[in-house]
Amino acid sequence: xxxxxxxxxxxNVTLEHLGPCKKLLRIDVEATQVKGAFDxxxxxxVKNASIPGFRAGRAPRDMVLKRFEEDIRTEVKRKLYSDVFxxxxxxxxxxxxxxxxxxxxxxxxxxxxxxxxxxxxxPEFELPEYRGLSAKRENAKVTDDDVERxxxxxxxxxxxxxxxxxxxxxxxxxxxxxxxxxxxxxITALAPAARGLTEQKNFWLQLETGSFIPGFxxxxxxxxxxxxxxxxxxxxxxxxxxxxxxxxxxxxxxxLEVKERQLPALDDEFAKSWKAETMHQLREGxxxxxxxxxxxxxxxxxxxxxxxxxxxxxxxxxxxSALNQETRSxxxxxxxxxxxxxxxxxxxxxxxxEIYAAANKTAQERVKATFLFSRIxxxxxxxxxxxxxxxxxxxxxxxxxxxxxxxxxxxxxxxGIRDIYSQLLNEKVxxxxxxxxxxxxxxxxxx
Length: 447
Hints:
Elements: E1 2-8, E2 11-19, E3 22-29, H1 31-48, H2 61-67, H3 69-91, E4 101-106, E5 113-120, E6 134-139, H4 144-157, E7 160-163, E8 173-182, E9 185-186, H5 187-190, H6 195-198, E10 199-206, E11 228-234, E12 248-262, H7 268-273, H8 279-311, H9 320-340, H10 345-350, H11 352-380, H12 386-399, H13 404-413, H14 416-435, E13 438-443
Parallel strand pairs: 6-13
Antiparallel strand pairs: 1-2, 2-3, 3-5, 4-5, 7-12, 8-9, 8-10, 8-12, 11-12
Helix pairs in contact: 1-3, 4-8, 8-14, 9-11, 11-14, 12-13, 12-14
């Protein structure tokens, strides 16, 4: 389907719909306007060109035109294309979201110019009712059991590990050397990045279900220092190393030491090691921290429900360029986070298909939400100030241990400033949606 109009007396525009978010603008510019553009640019060059032997603006016109022929042609195209494209977009009321692909069909000083611009536009959809979205908020309270579990975790962080002269039992720690193989060859032959599974020296293991590889530690019960065990395991189907998923592994294990964990007593001395004066003060501090964490979880859950409620109300096609750009951004963040956690580059490369699939799914949700939020922000007058943007950049720079200026330059390399602006705008829209949502208070479900 095509629509034709004239946005200037000498310009003819034809609009074709190539898809829900893709349009083709065919623009014909009459030769008179093309010649006028050449004359305007040529005059500028004649007045300002610098040619050896002549003062600026004094060189013969023909000499300037010949010497700068290609520069003049390039500048005419840049200006003419930009002007007619911008006017066509305005006249056709298009919400263009990315730079166009330009096809030059015909262009010369004494001819009509014919140009085709393929553009991606924001999706067209009816904004659903976004006030009064439903959500449930749990009245969640920290229990005494929650506090005790947290205190136990703090005690474990202050543990002493005493070497014992007996065989290992459930809950003990053992220090081992081991070598691993799969299908009769070292594990690295199948999974080059899995060097840690192929061999370890002085490796600590706790004898509890689920520790390390499933089924591994259970086979070390009853072993003492100096003992050797052959341990066989079935690598789970969702194991972190794809090449080993669903396969059997064999480990030759030598027990070097058996260690027993000794937890510190829950007394005021222990409390002081965590910057509290008394155990009562420590308990109350732990309870407060847990409640703040729980409140944050409940808050995030409400926001998730509200956003999902909005997303479920409308479906529309997503622009390919926006989806690809967001997918690349998500992939970048996933890889960067894995690298910060020390994940080997080889392992990241092995999982690139899984990373991309997960990133694409996340990107679809984000891009859809961004277009919805943008429409709501425009309708409600929600904006992000420069001060708010600067504060977020400073906070993120601190998180990445970089100066704000250096972090801002890194962001500019990948258009990250716009991403942060979009994040802030989205957050403010979600704040608005939450403020106007219908929230039902419910009792928390048992853990």
